[in-house]
Amino acid sequence: MTRLLFLLASLLFVSPLHAAEGDAESSEDEPKWDVQNPPGPWRSVRIDTERTTWSNLDVSPDGKTIVFDMLGDIYSMSIDGGEAAALTSGIAWNMQPRFSPDGKRIAFISDRNGADNLWLMNADGSEPEALTEERDHLIHNPNWSPDGNWLVVRKGFVSTRSIPSGEIWMFHVGGGKGLQLVELPHGEQSQKNIAEPAFSTDGRYVYYSQDVTPGSVWQYNKNALEQVFVIKRLDREEGKTIQFAGGPGGAIRPTPSPDGKHLAFVRRMPDMHSALVVKSLQSGNERTIFKALERDLQETSGSQGNTPAFAWTPDSNSLVFWAGGMFHRTELESGETTPIPVHVSDERQVRETLRYPVTVWDETFPVKALRWAQYSPAGDKVVFQALGYLYVKDLESGEQERLTRQSDHFEFWPAWSPDGRHIVYTTWDDQDLGTVRVVPARGGRSSVVSDQPGHYIQPRFSPDGEEIVFRKFEGGSLLSPKWTNEPGIYIVSADGGKQQRVVDSGSNPAFNTDASRILYSAPGENGILELKSVDRDGDDERTHFKGPKITEYSVSPDGRWVAFTEQYNAYVAPFAATGKTVDLSRKTEAFPVRQVSKRSGENLHWSSNADSLRWSHGATLYSRDLSDAFAFLDGAPAPLPEPATQGVDLGFTHQSDAPEGIIALVNGRIITMRDADGFEEVIQDGTIIVSGNRIQAVGQSVDIEIPDGAFVLDLDGKTVIP
Q1: What DSSP string runs through 588-617?
Q2: Which of 490, 486, 507, 506 is closest to 498 using CA atoms?
Q3: Closest Cα to residue 87, out of 75, 97, 78, 71?
Q4: DSSP-derived 3-state class of residue 195
Q5: Average pLDDT of every residue of the chain
Q6: Beta-carbon neighbour count of residue 424 at 10 Å?
Q7: Which residue from 217, 450, 569, 631 has the highest number of Cβ atoms inside 10 Å of its Cβ?
């Protein structure tokens, strides 16, 4: 049953990002996207269950009713259990219901306006209305103030990763854009979660959970048995914040009792289950009252909360919660737990499954994953990397060929010389490590210019073509730990020789206009990417730009322009030299900034005369003239430009690899994909014949004839599975 509910959840979920993209792509003539009524075929699925999955719940102020969420809809039922009545319907995702203090309304989260926002409805489910209209910062974990005038929520923020950090905000029931109560702990680049806010009974305090592991970067696989999350308490009168609960196993989902005497929360236990804990607000003593909650989400981002919401009964004598697919009620004093039965009989509308025919193998396949595509200085050729090697394509004839003929190592990071006669690139081999090489643009034998093996990327010629700047980085994780001393940015002659280290860290290096300085990118405070430069000796460091969501910089050859990527798109702005660090983003208003890519852009590079910017997206290479993006360059008014949508498709087809010969796997136990009376078929003494890239025969060894010339592999004691 649980697997069925998860399957239905995945079928019913409608991504708010997709909805937002639908609005952005639609024209004025097209109907506005309606989450509840999307186009296309749908069908009804009947649900009849006595179990629910990961249900947030609340108890009404009169203690008679439970509201809970299941599969994107909200239901109510008697606190004694029984039939559940749906309060919401449709394909919008509705969750996290909370009764108002007077019991007349329910706050909940819904994506029916295109993204997860805070909504209000009457207790019977009628008259739903949106209280927030966030598009970028999704709202979760609503809780009411005791007077019923305010709601406190978690607002999510995404910076350079898809991992959302959180802030605590407060919204008035009468509307408005809200007030920030708790800000991001490490600035705009923070990836640490803050969630699950709740007012104290008297309204003075707001409790919330916070990830207090070191640093600002969210990491996988944290040890929840130590301390990831703690509960903090904000004093709304004095503005002070203290840590209120924590320790081994952490503390999440703070839930104050109605009488103001206790705080219930969830803690991870050594058996990796989670437990319901009650803390006395007078003595500080803690007592575990239920040890078999579902495992919480402290190791994950917990963007919608770390564990399902639970609730006190109005008399503060019991806690009602979801665990193990069922609802339960635990008495505070005795610890006695009794189940609350539930029956949900409902229907769901689901989209018909989209299916495509899958070809197991073709003789050829389309190559679409191209990297580092760059126009030549003359604009007539393109170099790029695909399938581990470098290719050059003539744009006029359409002819394309590999730049080299070797197969001893892989080739990466190509860049043209200013005169277009040579290409610099880096190589990698698991045994011999990497090199920096230069090869004639017409192809032929390459020459190594680095003076030792290493881990090399991002090479680039100087303006006169006499030198090369590149980055050396450390190995030791997935790559070899050898030759990893003294990482950083280096300069070497284009003819080879001793390489000179300029700085010990940084990425994406390039020479400035007269090669007197080296431009490069490096993370600054709170991980914000900065564009820096130093002289050739690594001195006189200057920070030119910084941007909280910028992921790449590229300065034009004449030094007049800076291109950058932010939220996957490419932008261009004048290079503003002020002697100070300039804040830069797509929303900068101090000087003109233009978006040049329509949907995505990376690997920014410039034409040799700096009059156009180039970038790639997948197998497509784009170019945009600055006079097109900045109309004032032609003396005309500067209208908002339309981003570039047309580019050069560099995709091609390639012969699929296929083994030759025949292999016979004999004397093994074979589990096939055939079904035998409801069980997988198991052949105890079996043989498999593989010819080329096809399985030719599977069966009992006595029934299979091994072809002449086959390579025979004895699998005695081994098992083969699909």
Answers
A1: --SS--EE-BSS--EEEEE-TTSSEEEEEE
A2: 490
A3: 75
A4: strand
A5: 91
A6: 23
A7: 450
What gap in Å lies between CA 56 and CA 62, rounded to an integer? Answer: 19
Distance CA 577, CA 533 (A): 13
User: Distances in Å between the alpha carbon of 220 and those of 158, 188, 406?
Assistant: 17, 20, 39
CA distance 331 to 487: 61
User: Tokens 């995702």 appear where?
Assistant: 93
| Edge-to-edge strand ranges of the sheet holding 57-59 | 57-59, 65-70, 73-78, 85-86
Give the pLDDT band (50/70/90) at residue 676. Answer: low
Q: For 349, list phi and psi in degrees, rounded to 5.
A: -95, 125
Q: What is the CA radius of gyration of the chain?
A: 31
- ∠ CA 152-158-164, nearest 5°, is 60
Interatomic CA distance for residues 243 and 250, integer angstroms: 12
* Cα–Cα dist 147/154, whole Å: 20
Q: What is the pLDDT of residue 402?
A: 96
What tokens appear for 325 in the block?
A: 């697919």
Determine the residue type at 255: T
Q: Is 99 exposed, middle or buried (0-12, 13-18, 19+ CB in 10 A)?
A: buried
Give the model's pLDDT for residue 8.
Answer: 38
d(CA 490, CA 469): 6
Nearest-angstrom CA–CA distance, 453 and 461? 20
User: Is 249 buried (19+), middle (13-18) or exposed (0-12) by CB count in 10 A?
Assistant: buried
Which contiguous run of DSSP H or E holds residue 629?
A: helix 626-629
In this prediction the pTM is 0.67
β-sheet with 252-256: strand ranges across:
252-256, 262-268, 274-280, 286-293
Paired tokens of 328: 């339960």
- Rounded Cα distance between 113 and 119, Å, is 10
Residue 64 pLDDT > 60: yes
Q: What pLDDT was estimated at residue 198?
A: 98
Q: How far apart are CA 206 and CA 183, in angstroms?
A: 13
CB count, 10 Å around CB of 564? 27
Please provide the size of the chain in residues. Answer: 722
Assess contact for 692 and 676: CB atoms under 8 A.
no
